[in-house]
Design goal:
Strand content: under 5%
Radius of gyration: 26 Å
Number of strands: 0
CATH class: Mainly Alpha
Protein name: Flagellar export protein FliJ
CATH architecture: Orthogonal Bundle
Largest sheet: none
Structural class: mainly alpha
Low-confidence stretches: none
Distance between the termini: 19 Å
Shape: rod-shaped
Number of domains: 1
Helix content: over 70%
Length: 115
């Protein structure tokens, strides 16, 4: 029983670590999506403006496009890592539940033998 208790502590810790990874990746994803939405809502001058005449409008549009590309690449990286982390979380949960079941079964066996 002592070994199973230690194993339960270990599986609980692994599960918590995997959950922390997923939580952090969710936070990163949300942040990137928010930044992309802000870029999409960025004001763009309509018609011919003094900025457009000076070429600043083209530089602004180029900066937005490059920033959006970089954010999308980072978002793709985070989403891939999130998928891997979900797999790790699922595995950790399965191990945690298996150990809990072993402990329950062992407790039932002890109760049945003492009755």
């Amino acid at each position: 029983m002592k070994n199973l208790s230690k194993l339960q502590q270990l599986t609980d810790a692994v599960y918590a670590a995997e959950m922390a990874k997923v939580t952090d990746l969710n936070r990163q994803e949300q942040h990137l999506r928010q930044r992309l939405a802000e870029l999409k809502a960025a004001p763009t001058p309509d018609g011919i403006s003094p900025f457009a005449l000076a070429g600043a409008d083209l530089k602004w549009q180029s900066w937005i496009a490059e920033t959006r590309r970089a954010l999308n690449i980072e978002l793709s990286r985070v989403l891939a890592a999130k998928e891997r982390a979900r797999t790790g979380l699922s595995t950790a949960l399965g191990k945690q539940q298996a150990v809990k079941k072993l402990i329950e079964n062992q407790s039932l066996k002890r109760r049945n033998h003492t009755s």
